[in-house]
Amino acid sequence: QVHLVESGGGLVQPGGSLRLSCVAIGSIFSINAMGWYRQAPGKQRELVATITSGGSTNYADSVKGRFTISRDNAKNTVYLQMNSLKPEDTAVYYCNTRYSIDVLRTLDAWGQGTLVTVSS
C-alpha cells in the first residue's frame, strides 16, 4: 500500500507564493497520475490540478495561470507551485495518486491534507 507524505502548506499573504510537495512511498509498480485537490471551509472537495505519468496536465479554471503542477517520476513526487495566491485559495490541500501495484491492480491513495491559509 502507498502512503503519501505532503509538505509545504502554511500561512501566506495575498499575492504570495507557496510550493507544495507530495511523495508517494511504498510498493509501486507504476504511477498513472498524481494530483492536488482542495477543500475550503463549508465547501466540497474540488480538483486543483492533475498530471499524468506522460506529463499531461489539467487545471481548475480558478487556478489556471497561477498554479503549476509538476512531477518527478523517478522520485514518485508531485509538486504544486502556487503563485499570486488569493484569499479564496485558502483550503486544505490534498495530494492524490492513482497507481498500480502490479500489471493487474490499480489503486488510489490520498494524503491527509495540508492547510494553506492566504490572509493579510
What do you see in this structure?
With 120 residues, the protein is mainly β. Helices cover 0% and strands 57% of the residues. The protein has no helices and 11 strands. The strands form 2 sheets. Strands 2, 4, 5, 6, 9, 10 and 11 form a 7-stranded mixed β-sheet that branches. β5 (46-52) and β6 form a beta hairpin. The model has no long low-confidence stretch (mean pLDDT 94).
Key traits:
elongated, 7-stranded mixed beta sheet, 4-stranded antiparallel beta sheet, 57% strand, mainly beta, 120 residues
Shape: elongated
Rg from C-alpha positions?
14 Å
Query: What proportion strand?
Result: over 45%
Distance between the termini: 40 Å
Name the helix and strand elements from N-terminus to C-terminus, one letter apiece.
EEEEEEEEEEE
- The overall pLDDT, averaged over residues, is 94
Stretches where pLDDT is under 50 for at least 5 consecutive residues are none
The share of residues in helices is under 10%
Question: Given the structure, what is the number of helices?
Answer: 0
Q: What structural class should be given to the helix and strand makeup?
A: mainly beta
Find the count of extended strands (DSSP E, 2+ residues): 11
Largest sheet: 7 strands, mixed
Summed up:
By secondary structure, this protein is mostly beta strands. 0% of the residues lie in helices and 57% in strands. It is built from no helices and eleven strands.
Helix and strand topology:
Elements: E1 3-7, E2 10-12, E3 18-25, E4 30-39, E5 46-52, E6 57-59, E7 67-72, E8 77-82, E9 91-100, E10 106-110, E11 114-118
